[in-house]
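As the next step, I needed to go through one protein, both as residues and as discrete backbone shape codes, included below for the reader:
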Amino acid sequence: MAAAELPPGLVRAHPDCFHLWLPLPAGWSASAFSNRSAALGVSVVPADAFAVSLAPPAAVRLSLGAVSERARLSKALRVLADLLGSREGSAT
């Protein structure tokens, strides 16, 4: 479902996993994307929370198993896809 809803080539996950890494386009920091998506009702976790190096990637982690209804998950993924496609990140 995530591969179908999000921009092509972005989903980085094992097909049987309930989590995935979502790399962010240039201009978005993980914290800015996380904050903006939360304001839109979708929670993601910045890569910094999982980093073991001083330079975490510009990415966020999505937990797909946390949503109990497929329709809600689909809607949340569309929100993230729209946010990724916006020019909003270039101002952050």
Notes: DSSP finds three helices and three strands in the chain. Helices lie at 2-5, 30-39, 70-85.
